[in-house]
Amino acid sequence: MCMVFSQSCLCPCFSGGFWLGVDQEGMTGNLSLTGVFFGVVASACVSLNAIFTKKVMPAVDGNIWKLSYYNNINACVLFLPLILLFGELGSLASFSRSSDLKFWGMMTLGGVFGFAIGYVTGLQIKFTSPLTHNVSGTAKACAQTVIAVVYNSSSKSLLWWTSNMMVLGGSSAYTWVKSLEMKKTPQRVPPDSAKEKLLPEEKGNLGV
């Protein structure tokens, strides 16, 4: 219970850091309400995806390869009506680089990396929790933002840096608390029904 309480106390740190970052963008006049809206909706979808991934894991026997296969098949099927709905079929037909090997090579490489990210995401959700996956994703995005600002030598206010440090600091603290929780969790012994079945010759030796 103590670990769960500690994790719950760290969640407002992420939210506070995000809110402060949005507030600082508003102070500079670069805040887009549309961007904030779609950002929040995207975050909600990522969270729901992690939750449902954890729920359907038993349906694929915890097999990440099988889960990744189903996800990619679903994505291919769902994209077809969207292509027709948004009128992208004409753009695809008139695309000038449809026979360019370099283009298809880059598309294939992007697909491989995308599949790898999906596989690692499934592994992370399987062995930790949806909340841990969301925290790590937030920390990754925040770290990328800080690296981009430093690389481009952009000028940011003290509160902007504070907001990012809140998110990164809260993520680091969550990781530490979660690792302590996982170390204290006892190894569960599988029930008899889940144990490996004995070979026929081993069954005959049980009475010896």
What does this structure look like?
The protein has 208 residues and is mostly helical. It has one domain. About 5% of the residues have low confidence.
How would you concisely characterize the structure shown here?
77% of the residues lie in helices and 0% in strands.
List the keywords.
8 helices
What is the SS-derived class? mainly alpha
Number of domains: 1
Task: Report the biggest beta sheet as strand number plus sense, adding barrel if it closes.
Answer: none
| Gyration radius from CA atoms, angstroms | 23 Å
Averaged pLDDT:
79
Low-pLDDT stretches are 189-199
Instruction: Give the proportion of residues in helices.
Output: over 70%
Number of strands: 0
Order of helices and strands: HHHHHHHH
Strand content: under 5%
**Please, how many helices?**
8
Give the topology.
Blueprint (H helix, E strand, L loop, with lengths): L1 H27 L4 H24 L7 H22 L2 H6 L7 H27 L2 H22 L6 H27 L15 H5 L4
Helix pairs in contact: 1-7, 2-6, 3-5, 6-7
